[in-house]
Amino acid sequence: MNIRKTAWRRGQTGQSLVETVLMLPLLLLVLLNAVNFAYFYLVALNLTAASRTGALYAMIGSSTPAGTALPPAAGTSSLTASYLTYQDMTGALNAPGSATVQVCSAGLGVNGTGSSQTAKCETCTSSTTCGATPGTGSPAPDADPEAPTFVLNRVDVIYTFTPIIPGTPFGLALLPLSACTASGGSVTCTFHRQVSMRAMGS
To answer: pLDDT of 72-111, one tens digit each?
Structure first.
């Protein structure tokens, strides 16, 4: 009788080991997809906060109530909205310098007249490289419904990244999202975050 129980227990131990071996790849796949999915939302949160901070600074800056001039929109100075946006992404994102930041501000001037008045834009491809010519895939700013009394100031951030754990099987949870695509055995995601705020026109 004891011999039968011992043999039965050995059989149960072997069965548990086989079940564990069969389930382990599936559990790892689910776990690693969850890690990449969490990183996706961490990037989204940080890009949203960075563009909001840049747009808010482009509107009010660090000036006192007596100062009415808008702060510089873009450039290499630490007092610009584009520099602040890049600094807000630093430490939270892998290679934040690869992001493209476009700042449209009434501080740069305006295009058009009357109800079609829009803010001029400047595009930065890093915190130290800014040019006066837009053309980064960001659309031109819209005219404010109450232009020329108000002008829309805007900060656009475009950032492309690969998930922490490379490989298409570990990015399956990201593929249904419109921001991510699979190519050549890896997944890449491109975020475009935009914040617009109204400024009093001149």
So the answer is: 787 777 788 888 888 888 877 877 878 888 888 887 888 8
Q: Name residue, tokens 């790849």.
A: 25
* H/E element, 200: strand 186-200
Give the span between the Cα atoms of 28 and 37, in whole angstroms.
14
Q: Report which of 181, 166, 75 is spatially closest to residue 122, judged by C-alpha positions.
A: 75
Distance CA 64, CA 74 (A): 20
Main-chain dihedrals φ then ψ at residue 42, nearest 5 degrees:
-65, -45
Q: How far apart are CA 114 and CA 151, in angstroms?
A: 11
pTM of the model: 0.77
Distant-in-sequence contacts of 81-85, Cβ < 8 A, 24+ apart: 81/54, 81/55, 81/57, 81/105, 81/155, 82/54, 82/122, 82/124, 82/127, 82/130, 83/127, 84/53, 84/54, 84/57, 85/50, 85/51, 85/53, 85/54, 85/155, 85/157
Structural contact between residues 178 and 142, judged by C-beta atoms closer than 8 angstroms: no
3-state helix, strand, coil in the chain (%, to 5): 40, 30, 35
Residues 6+ apart with CB under 8 A from 48: 193
The H-or-E segment that residue 83 falls in is: helix 81-89
